Structures are given as C-alpha cells and as structure tokens.
Amino acid sequence: MFWKKLFEKNQKSDKDLQLIKFILIRFGYRPKNLELFKEALTHKSYSNLSNDPSNERLEYLGDAILDAVIANFLFHKFPDEDEGYLTKVKSKLVSRKTLAELGEAMEIATVLKYNKGRSINLSTLQGNALEALIGAVYLDAGFDKAKSIIEQYIFRNYIDLSKTLEEEIDFKSKLFIWAQKNKLELEFEIISESNEGSHWVYTSQVIINRLAYGRGTGTSKKAAEQEAAKETLVLMGEI
C-alpha cells in the first residue's frame, strides 16, 4: 500500500509532463518545483476564474533578472561603448516588442493559461510569461542558472544581436555591424580637441585593422564619432 501511494504521488499528469517537456526543450532545464512554473504560465485573466495565483509577481522578478543579465552581457560585449549606447541597445533587447516576439518564437502560448474568451493581445501575454518563467527559474535554481539559461538558450537561440543593432539609426552602430560581419577590428580615436570659447570641438578618427579611415568633428565626442562613422560608411560604399 505504501509503495502504491508513493507511486501515485510521484505520477505526473499529461499537462505536467507537457510543461516539463516544454521547459526542458526551451530552457534546457528540469524544474524542481513545478508549481512555480505553473504560476509563471497563469495569466490573471485565467487566475480570476480559477483562483490560482497569477504570474504578475514572477513577471516583476523575471524582468529584474533579465535586465541585470542583459546589462552584464552588453557591458562585457562592448567594452569601449559609453552608457548611452549600452542603455539604448539594452532597451531594445528587453522591450515589450522584443519580449513579445521571443515569447511567440518560443511558442509559450502552447502552455500558457489565459481566458480565451476575452479579447487579449496574445503576443504581449507570451512576452510577460517569458519574464515570469525567468523569475521561476531564479527562484527554483538561483541567479547563476537563470543567467546561464538566458545566455545559452534564450539569447543564443532566439535573439539576433546583429539584426537588433541594425535597427539602430546611428552611423556608429551601422559601422560596428559592418566591421563585425567582416571580422575587422574597429576603434574610434579622438585625435584632437580644442576650446572654441563657448564650446569644445572634437575630431574623431575611425581605425580599422590599424588603418585610418573616416574623420568627423563635433561639439561632443559622440557627435564626432558619428560623423567619422558616417564618412567611413560612405568610403566603404555602405551608404
């Protein structure tokens, strides 16, 4: 009788097995506390009907974890970029639009619980659930595991960094993408700066594989680099 009860206790329902399989395939992780992941996949429109906890708290937690991991990744990926550039790229990677696209690509809707009788933006729900799932992983296995899954599974399999950067309108980003695609070393050097009384004027030089290319001037280093990048792209026939 004891073994029978133990066996029945450890048996998983078909829905539980489907969820475990989903997490294994999409995250490379087997949950320890499956209830966390069920909660992560329960939208409030469903929880209002079932009295199950919604994923809003886990979404909040996952958002913070994702933000920290992406910030750390970009900090090391682009050691020469300033805060403004890193912030701009990070905001694209963690935007509602990007998360919705990720959730859709990962087919989160197949395991998501929501009120299908209501008019709801399913893409947004999937993006929110993705953050909640990250929160669930964090609570289930800690920050290092969550970081590893974001970088090794989500980031590697579902995010095209080059495409994301291509959507930036500034010339410096476009030049960086071009250099990355062609496996070239790219640097920006400030070769002169002068005080013009009411403002400073900077001159920037693009260096590619130790060779000088376009130059640009501006009243800030960033503006000078933009002009230098633009001139280089013109020289390369990219614009």
UniProtKB/TrEMBL annotation:
Subcellular location per the Swiss-Prot or TrEMBL entry: Cytoplasm
Residues binding Mg(2+), per UniProt: E59, N128, E131
Chief location category: cytoplasm
Keyword Chaperone: no
UniProt keywords, alphabetically: Cytoplasm, Endonuclease, Hydrolase, Magnesium, Metal-binding, mRNA processing, Nuclease, RNA-binding, rRNA processing, rRNA-binding, tRNA processing
Domain called RNase III: residue spans: 20-142
Enzyme class, UniProt record, top EC level: hydrolase
Pfam families cross-referenced by the UniProt entry: dsrm (PF00035), Ribonucleas_3_3 (PF14622)
Listed PANTHER family: RIBONUCLEASE 3, RIBONUCLEASE III
Subunit structure: Homodimer.
Entry protein name: Ribonuclease 3
UniProt organism field: Wandonia haliotis
Lineage: Bacteria, Pseudomonadati, Bacteroidota, Flavobacteriia, Flavobacteriales
